[in-house]
Design brief:
- There is one protein chain.
- With 95 residues, this protein is mainly α.
- It has one domain.
- 87% of the residues lie in helices and 0% in strands.
- It contains four helices and no strands.
- Helix 2 packs antiparallel against helix 3, helix 2 packs parallel to helix 4 and helix 3 packs antiparallel against helix 4.
- The longest helix is centred in the N-terminal third of the chain and has 25 residues.
């Protein structure tokens, strides 16, 4: 069994608890990414990055509130976390 499958099964079994943690966790991570993006100014590139972060975090929250399937919410959460970490790394290290 892969790590993805095991984690997905755990997520499905305790969906209500994990949903609350996901909303808090990815919203805080998205806010940190937004902070690092805005630290570098307000140019067009930063606004594109900020828009991507905000939309991604909103989609995860809406997915949970709209009671989408647990697999969809899980996949959106993984994408949101990876995008936030990527934007943080990009704005701290590169830009």
């Amino acid at each position: 069994m892969t790590l993805y499958q095991k984690t997905l099964e755990d997520f499905q079994q305790s969906y209500v608890g994990y949903a609350a943690l996901v909303i808090i966790g990815q919203s805080c991570l998205g806010a940190a990414a937004a902070m690092y993006i805005l630290e570098n100014g307000t140019s067009f590139i930063q606004m594109i990055q900020l828009g991507l972060i905000v939309i991604t975090c909103m989609f995860v929250n809406v997915g949970i509130l709209a009671q989408l399937s647990t697999k969809t919410v899980f996949n959106m959460t993984i994408f949101s976390v990876l995008l936030s970490v990527l934007m943080i790394a990009l704005n701290v290290m590169v830009i």
